[in-house]
Specification:
Bound molecules: flavin-adenine dinucleotide
Strand content: 25-35%
CATH architecture of the largest domain: 3-Layer(aba) Sandwich
Helix content: 10-25%
CATH topology of the largest domain: Rossmann fold
Strand order of the largest sheet: 4-3-7-1-2-6-5
Order of helices and strands: EEHEEEEHEEHEHEEHEHEEEHE
Number of helices: 7
Structural class: alpha/beta
Distance between the termini: 29 Å
């Protein structure tokens, strides 16, 4: 498998680690290679400890001068173990992996829901550099609203939504900007979040012919296209009408028009 040659394992030192809220952790690691090679929308595959056979995929939230930053929620044993690491510990990181977002010219909307918010921060930094950009972020409740001030400095308009209405718009991030989106305000939409939100978004962007890139978070094994477990269906001209692609190797970012959700 010649494509495996491009993958590198980096040893990265944790230089900052904060508990943002609840079970959400914000980690910055230092590694020159990761700082130089990482792009918005890519992810890394982290060795959480000797007891785990598989690494855990976590998106790159920000590319810093000396490394990368990632933000994760504790969902199971691997991320729990990761949350117990401390500043000064080193992490074994495979990456950067995946294709990342292709930043386009023109007015864009960045849409994130839940942990899908965190892969979008570096994108907001890049997309807002020369082009107008709005951001809509959705969280379950007020206590989980994170990165609000940081995103605010990287966009023209920031819309915050909570499922329970305890902060900002009552509903999800897509509902908060649906009217503006349907009015043709954006040339490009970039999104990451729960499947129902991505499905609803795809329906709108397909119908209105808006270019939309979505980042998919499928259960993943190897992270480099060898184990084939993170496959998704995309449109294909062949007899079946679809083919399988791998989120780790061909994604995680896909043209929403092509993905069968
Ligand atoms: C491309 C990509 C980017 C991601 N980025 C982030 C991020 O920035 N922040 C964040 O909080 N989470 C992110 N996730 C989800 C994160 O990988 C899982 O929450 C994590 O792997 C759970 O591991 P665990 O050991 O704690 O849970 P367990 O449920 O014990 O994990 C068991 C196995 O299932 C896999 N797994 C479980 N849930 C998921 C999931 N949702 N997606 C993929 N694999 C899963 C694990 O990797 C592991 O191999 C991302 C997932 C993918 C695929």
């Amino acid at each position: 498998m010649e494509h495996l040659e491009k993958y590198q394992v980096a040893t990265a030192n944790i230089i900052k680690m904060t508990n943002l809220c609840g079970t959400i952790y914000d980690v910055t690691v230092e590694n020159e290679y990761l700082a130089k090679a990482s792009r918005c929308g890519q992810f890394v595959h982290i060795d959480c400890g000797d007891e785990f056979v598989l690494r855990r995929p976590i998106s790159i939230c920000e590319v810093t001068d000396s490394g990368i930053r990632f933000i994760f929620d504790v969902r199971g044993k691997g991320t729990k173990r990761l949350s117990e690491k401390q500043v000064g510990d080193s992490l074994d990181i495979l990456g950067p992996l995946g294709n990342g977002f292709a930043v386009r010219k023109g007015k864009s909307l960045i849409l994130g829901g839940g942990i899908g918010v965190y892969p979008l921060y570096e994108l907001a930094k890049q997309a807002s550099k020369e082009n107008p950009c709005d951001v809509a972020l959705g969280f379950r409740t007020k206590e989980l609203v994170t990165l609000e001030d940081e995103f605010k400095t990287k966009c023209d308009n920031l819309y915050i939504a909570t499922d329970d209405g305890s902060y900002g718009f009552h509903g999800n991030a897509l509902q908060a900007v649906k009217e503006k989106l349907e009015s043709g305000a954006y040339e490009t939409v970039y999104a990451c979040g729960p499947l129902p939100m991505l499905k609803a978004l795809k329906e709108i962007t397909d119908r209105n012919n808006i270019f939309c890139q979505i980042s998919m978070e499928e259960r993943m094994g190897c992270g480099i296209g060898a184990c084939l477990c993170c496959n998704i269906k995309v449109e294909d001209d062949g007899e079946e009408g679809f083919k399988h692609l791998h989120v780790c190797k061909d994604g995680p970012v896909f043209n929403a028009k092509e993905v069968l959700l």
